[in-house]
Task: structure prediction
Amino acid sequence: MASEVQGKSVPMEEASFEIASGRGRARDDFDDDGRVKRTGTLVTASAHIITAVIGSGVLSLAWALAQLGWIAGPTVLLIFSLITWFCSSLLADCYRSPQGKRNYRYKDAVRTHLGGVSSKLCALAQYVNLVGVTIGYTITTAISMGAVKRSNCFHRNGHDAACGESNTTNMTIFACIQIVLSQIPNFHKIWWLSIVAAIMSVAYSSIGLGLSIAKIAEGPHARTSLTGVTVGVDVSGSEKVWRTFQALGDIAFAYAYSNVLIEIQDTLRSSPPENQVMKKATTIGVLTTTTFYMLCGVLGYAAFGNTAPGNFLTGFGFYDPFWLVDIGNICIVVHLIGAFQVFAQPIFQFIETWSRNRWPDNRFVTTEHVINIPLLGDCPFSLFRMIWRSLFVIITAVVAMIFPFFNDFLGLIGAVSFWPLTVYFPVEMYIVQAKIRRFSATWTWLKILSIVCLIVSLVAACGSVQGLIHSLQDYKPFKIS
Result:
């Protein structure tokens, strides 16, 4: 297998060495697995987590709490945060095998602890979820881009003006940006993008929070209840059930990041131990996001009541100050530009690794060039990587154009991925790793946790599918909204 480095044809292993580090580096410049020394820290890992967790899910929490009410809503938010934190801590211990070997991807950790069949099932669940998230982020970004234009239109022409905007155009713009960013070779190169995205996520959450507080202060207060939307007043009995299920899926989606946890952990320095740093980063990330989620969900529900919009920054529960609404939506766009890459990079790495192993002698697949870009320095370039990653971005954009349903799509992604990726595999790997005796007290309550979460995922998926079917009945693709 050969590759071209600065115009020379050299073996692939040698090329990778030159591309990643340059010849002549000391042995201390490499980790125990022979790869260039990782430089990730608690700060960068926390930024990756916050970027992955505080995403478009926060925008639907006011709606979710409106379906569940004052008692169940905050309780479910807290329960999901505790489950996510606990299971993520278990997963962090699975980065290294009992022999100390690194697992670079989630499915590698599952293979090490549970075997090949489980690894394939994990990979299926993980990559389906990652693809779904990238589609969901494309939808959300387009809606926020359109909301900026609509906000200015409403400001000029009044709140009752017909201010339509093409999500298709916005998705095309977003896809063009992602095609460029997708040429970044790997996860290790996007730490700065995650820090920017994390700052943006905190910014727009804070703006939504501030606008909710202002709306509450204006009075009169919106109609709320202990059990959420009222049967016979706001919704029918069947709608109440379906919406409750869908709300569970939206909250599950809001906390989803286990599918990239191992990949994030693989960016960390070897010392202190990666699992210790990752557990601290998980605590910081989940605590930060839960605080924002509680504030945004509770205050958003208090502001809008049982008529809370599905997206509280783009559903125009807020019209003024229009410039602040615009800033909030711009922050969403910047954040999701970075978050798309956090979730897309594992897909890119998987396909490219599989392709190199499948066609080791194919020069189109294996050849790399080094291109000097002003201000950026030497950057690896692959024609195969450019073409396939661009196609992936285009396909996700087209699917998003066909099914641009914010709440339903988010709920379905959260429901499908929550149990297998956040709960089942971490729990099963921990049982094997810790050698927990079958039917012992610890084994029993871990199994109960897994079964309960499976039931929650199933009912949430049913609610989201019903919502999608309902949304599709009168929908026309590529229309101006």
